[in-house]
Amino acid sequence: xxxxxxxxxxxxxHMRVTEAVAAAxxxxxxxxxxxxxxxxDHYEDIGLFWASVAAFLAFAAYGLFPDFxxxxxxxxTGGWAHDYSAGEIMAMIFVAMALKWVGTWLILKWLPLRLxxxxxAIKMARVRARAISLFKVGTEAKTVGRTGVLLYxxxxxxxxxxxxxxxxxKLVTPEIWGxxxxxxxxxxxxxxxxxxxAEAVRQMGIVLAEHFPKGHENPNxxxxxxxxx
Length: 229
Hints:
Elements: H1 11-24, E1 31-37, H2 44-64, H3 66-76, H4 86-107, H5 111-116, H6 120-138, E2 148-154, E3 159-164, H7 166-171, H8 178-189, H9 193-211, E4 227-228
Parallel strand pairs: 1-2, 1-4
Antiparallel strand pairs: 2-3
Helix pairs in contact: 1-9, 2-3, 2-4, 8-9
């Protein structure tokens, strides 16, 4: 799910989400874990990819317009044109490619630009992978009934994910979490990420209460607090 205008979580947001989790779990044996992070991946490989593309384009440009670039070299060296050997030409090409590569890589050290040049599909996949990784470490199989579910929000990628444990996944398809995701998106777009997560938790609680109502013995097995990484 795409999100926009995301703000940092405040202490009030932490309290709001924690209280929402506790309230939702009063009516269900399900356990809700909430995690918010600034960034799920640094996308260093994307910077390397675009640097390589820039270097290749420099090579292609010389192949298409050799006279133009040799003229530039002559002007830099004082206008003394001469016939370059194949070795000299290849050396100049490799130097130009190296400069293009390094320059592009340095520019793309700026994260906002790197993120802007990362395809949405890649960001979706990596946020999902990070959510699943965190779920496996802190939520999966951590409850007696395998009824844990993770709500994960990644700020800079503008993405959110819900990952459910085995027993929940059997009964609740990803589409059923639609109301929770819509609630989160609407409030985050309005610059209210804490309220968005709290409302998403409330909607998740409704779904969980329907399929996994509160039992007689149901200890609080996972933390209610909002975890900020």
